[in-house]
Amino acid sequence: MTSRTLKFLVLSFVTFCQIYVVAQTQDIFPDGTPIPEWFRQTEEVDIAELGQSYRITDHGVVNDSTIIQTEKIQAVIDKAGETGGVVVIPKGTYLSGSLFFKSGTHLHLEEGGVLKGSDDISNFPIVMTRMEGQTLKYFAALVNADRVDGFTISGKGTIDGNGLRYWKAFWLRREFNPACTNMDEMRPRLVYVSNSKDIEISGVKLMNSPFWTTHLYKCENAKLLNLYIYSPATPVKAPSTDAIDIDVCTNVLVKNCYMSVNDDAIALKGGKGPRADKDVNNGANRNIIIEDCIYGFCHGALTCGSESVHNYNIILRRIQVDSAQRLLWLKMRPDTPQVYEYILVENITGNSGNFLYIQPWTQFFDMKGETEVPRSYSRHITMRNIELECQTVFNVSSSDQYELTDFTFENLDLKASQKPEIYTEYINIFTLKNVVISGEKKY
């Protein structure tokens, strides 16, 4: 063998090793495709690069938490929309109804600045919007941005939904009519962004929403960074105040957020009904990453449903959970065809009522005249590298309506105070590796 040949072989081996190392360490989605660099670019937006600033107090808006100033604030947004720019909420409290951001505009809340929602529903117009898996007429949110590519919300201030009056009215109505739906008691969301690309919501506090807190619909490339999202569970429960609802979106990053709400923290939406997969208003959520977040109380840390048709390439990782009712919740709705696939939950610590929760979801069941119950699927679900205290490990039911296939439990250290059992017969192709429950290695 010549020295040239030997050198070639050595270089080839080194190159092979380098490629192998990269392949082993490359950040990938659950389906094996590489995660783009976009997901690793997490610097908050610099408003100095977004154009002229429009401080609302320079345009006739006053620091007064007792008077509705919707029209004056909207006039500032409209002015900023003429050439593009940033609407700035300075220190103080400013009461408003629905605001509608225009192309080229942004919202920035300075430290101590509070945009506070009216607790009078008449200050929120009825518009064509998206709610609970349906496209219909309902109340606009406090902050609305439709077809506003590049829209940002930033700063250290607060968007406060002022929800107490709405919450009390909801529970009173539910006491009077237990069958009333979430939408029957009229109340707005806090932030609604739709049909938009390259979105960023960063730094702000999103609090006390009357209904869903942050709702993204048909958005692409959306980042939610360093947010504080809160609604109370006591003394008055804040009903249906999901922290983040992701609805027919592609490429979403939720990073370094605190979430504590009286409903689901992250809920993946997309449509409901027996023909939901045929409706152009509905669709899949693809390439969603939730990482490095802290959870307080919530119903589900990651929830698929209750109105959802397809979720693909979903990652929940490096999460600290405290008092969640469920870590992973797959709502299997019997009136809707659903596919939940390629979901990864990893590197989790803390405590939760349930580790994995899969049950039929029958609230407001409606076959809309169809007679054949649609078939649903959950597959390629991996939960690994998790140390969790819980009450129940495996709250799962089998059903003729759905199939559960290709689940993996790996490197789990679970402490179960009530129900430690795992019923392997409920899942086709169930891989269990190094699963320890209450100090005993089960698999």
Your description of this structure?
It is a single chain. The protein is mainly beta. Helices cover 11% and strands 47% of the residues. The chain contains three helices and 31 strands. It has helices spanning 3-25, 70-83, 164-176, and strands at residues 52-55, 64-68, 85-89, 92-96, 99-101, 105-109, 113-117, 126-131, 134-139, 143-146, 152-155, 158-160, 191-194, 197-202, 205-207, 214-217, 220-225, 228-230, 244-247, 250-255, 258-260, 266-269, 284-291, 294-295, 302-304, 310-332, 339-360, 376-396, 402-419, 428-437, 440-441. The strands form two sheets. It has a 29-stranded mixed sheet that branches. Strands 8-9 form a two-stranded antiparallel ribbon. It is globular, with a radius of gyration of 24 Å. The chain starts with a helix and ends with a strand. The relative contact order is 0.08.
Mean pLDDT, all residues = 94
Unreliable segments of 5+ consecutive residues:
4-24
Task: For the record, give the distance between the C-alpha atoms at the N and C termini, rounded to a whole number.
Answer: 51 Å
Beta-strand portion reads over 45%
What is the number of helices? 3
Q: Note the overall shape.
A: globular
Largest sheet: 29 strands, mixed
Overall number of strands: 31
What is the helical fraction, as a range of percent?
10-25%
Structural class: mainly beta
Radius of gyration: 24 Å
